[in-house]
Amino acid sequence: MTDAFAFEYPSPLAGYENLEPLPVEFNEDGKSIKNPQHGVRSKAYEEFPDPLAKDRQGGFDVHIYHFQNNPDQVAYARALYERVRREFPELRIYRFYEGPLGPHPIAMFEVNLFTPAQFGAFIPWLIINRGPLSALLHPNSTEGEEERNHTQRATWLGEKSPPAMFHVAPPDLSATAIPGYVLEYAPLVWLHSQDVYMPSDIGEQLLHTAPTVDWKPIEGASSPVTLNNLDQLNNHGNTSVYLTSKEGIDADPQPAWFGGVKPNAEGRTQNAVSSTIIVRDHGDGTLDAFYFYFYAEHNMIRFSEGVPQAIWYSQHASGQAFTYRATEKKDKRPIAYSGKGTHANYAISGNHDHTIPGFNLPGGLIVDQTDQGTLWDPILSAYAYKYDASEEIFQPYDSGYPVEWLNFNGQWGDDALPGGPELFGQKKYAAGPNGPKFKKLVREKVCPSSPCVVLPFRIWENQTLAEYGQ
Questions:
Q1: DSSP classification of residue 419
Q2: Within a domain: residue 235?
Q3: DSSP readout, 30-62?
Q4: Range of the structural domain that residue 337 is part of
Q5: Smallest Cα–Cα separation from 382: which of 174, 173, 73?
Q6: Per-residue model confidence as pLDDT tens digits over 279-304
Q7: 235 and 375 share a domain?
Q8: Comparing C-alpha atoms, which of 57, 265, 260 is closest to residue 146?
Q9: Total tally of structural domains belonging to the chain
Q10: Are both 302 and 414 inside the same structural domain?
Q11: Contacts of residue 161, Cβ cutoff 8 Å, sequence gap at least 6
């Protein structure tokens, strides 16, 4: 579990400094201490304190767990679920899950609390009525501190069953059979300094979305949907399936999970697997390593006998290719700059007009902004697979990596809203992207399509090659 001393704690007396000393007299019972009365009740009676969420997400989630293999607990959990729905109809409650869901190691159902009044009524009631079940009570904060909210700030009723995402780390990729040079030359990504949308945990998205076709929930779909059964949705609409956010893509204010997980000082998205490496060996000394970032963009490096030759930077529906020698690097690792909000990958910082796909200038009508904001090292929190092109199968480099999600044919996000806002004919919200299997894993050149121009430089026309000393 997380070390409590890994966090900072502001003084509880902030704002109460330099006041008169508190009295030391006792009340009439001779035991309790007399407090000075000022006639003003704490705001905490009326609203949750900052930074707790006060939007549609709710200030607290309550996960009520039961062991799915224990018939007595299953029966009690079902009865408690019905009782909650009947006695507290105003509370938001989700489906009754019959097995593990995402990071939750055993079956559960979830209740959301939006006000101190709801909290004050439901939690004492649950303490008395939870029976043999355990419950995790954790806050949702506008800071997006998922780890802290589920550990240091969390409260347990009964036996602890912490979510797996906060106590099981992904295996070290260097301990797997993935070629060492795939990690040695893996890209580093500069996220924009003002970007509010960080990389996200792949499995976490399934907790906050529901599969739909034509904006309607799919009947008969597996429940819960996990990375281990996501491909079963192919039988319920195939490429027409969208993993639709429960709050809606136009939610205002947006829920905290939209923001993803900001990389720490090490460059790691702590407790969030936010990247996937897929290796395709051509069998003739040529190897393609795809580095997929879980905001729907990627880099691909082509190697020859273990030596990097060229790198592809995906940019919306197109992209650019450069020789490895031409790229900016930190040691041996090429640098990618992520567009603010759009996350398109670029080889240099600054502004990038992408009105014409694959053709970038520092100014124009539709511009991506990049800079050196937060440095992200995607391979520190990644799954890794080998792709067998002849069999069209993914083979994990570690047996603990889920595989079935890579065979999902649907879209990772909401369908485009009909009549949604546009700018110069470009939709503000495009439909959710599809997965890695659709990104031309089998390609003749480093580019996914022809013609393929591999640039030997990465600069704007008003700069000189000498500036980069390549």
A1: T
A2: yes
A3: SSSBPPPP-S---GGGTSPPTTB--STT-SEEE
A4: 177-463
A5: 173
A6: 999 999 999 999 999 978 999 999 99
A7: yes
A8: 260
A9: 2
A10: yes
A11: 65, 104, 105, 106, 134, 136
Task: Name residue 35's amino acid.
Answer: N
Q: Contact 430/416 with Cβ under 8 angstroms?
A: yes
Q: Does 201 lie in the same domain as 107?
A: no
What are 195's two structure tokens? 């970007």
Given 166, 198, 213, the domain boundary residue is 166
* Lowest-pLDDT range of 128-137, 166-175, 337-346, 412-421: 166-175
Indicate the angle between helix axes 71-87 and 116-129, nearest 10 degrees. 150
How confident is residue 161, by pLDDT bands cut at 50, 70 and 90? low
Say whether pTM exceeds 0.70: no
* pLDDT category of residue 363 using cuts at 50, 70 and 90: low
Centre a 10 Å sphere on the Cβ of residue 321 and count the other Cβ atoms it contains.
Answer: 21
| CA distance readout (Å), 113 to 63, 137, 139, 278, 349 | 11, 10, 9, 41, 43
Q: pLDDT class for 2, splitting at 50, 70, 90?
A: very low
Rounded to the nearest 10°, the torsion over CA 287, 293, 298, 304 is -20
Please state the rounded mean pLDDT for residues 140-169: 73
**What pLDDT does residue 247 have?**
81
What are the start-end ranges of the H helices in 23-173?
Answer: 71-87, 116-129, 146-150
User: What is the C-alpha separation between 5 and 469, in angstroms, rounded?
Assistant: 45
Whether residue 289 is contained in a domain is answered as yes
CA–CA distance, 403 with 260 (Å, rounded to integer): 22
Residues 111 and 189 in one domain: no
Task: Give per-residue pLDDT as tens, 125-142.
Answer: 999 999 999 999 999 997
Lowest mean pLDDT among 52-66, 211-225, 413-427: 413-427
Average pLDDT taken over every residue of the chain: 87
pLDDT tens sequence across 236-268: 999 999 999 888 877 877 877 788 889 999 999
Q: Are residues 136 and 55 in the same domain?
A: yes
Per-residue exposure over 399-412, b if at least 16 CB sit within 10 Å of its own CB, e if not: eebbbebbebbbbb
Asked whether the beta carbons of 383 and 396 are under 8 A apart, the reply is: yes
DSSP, res 402: -
pLDDT given for residue 137 in this prediction: 96
Q: Provide the CA 337 distance to its chain's centre, in angstroms.
A: 19
Shared domain for 242 and 330, answered yes or no, is yes
Cβ-contact 121, 62 below 8 angstroms: no
Q: How far apart are the first and last CA of the chain?
A: 47
Distance CA 323, CA 310 (A): 4
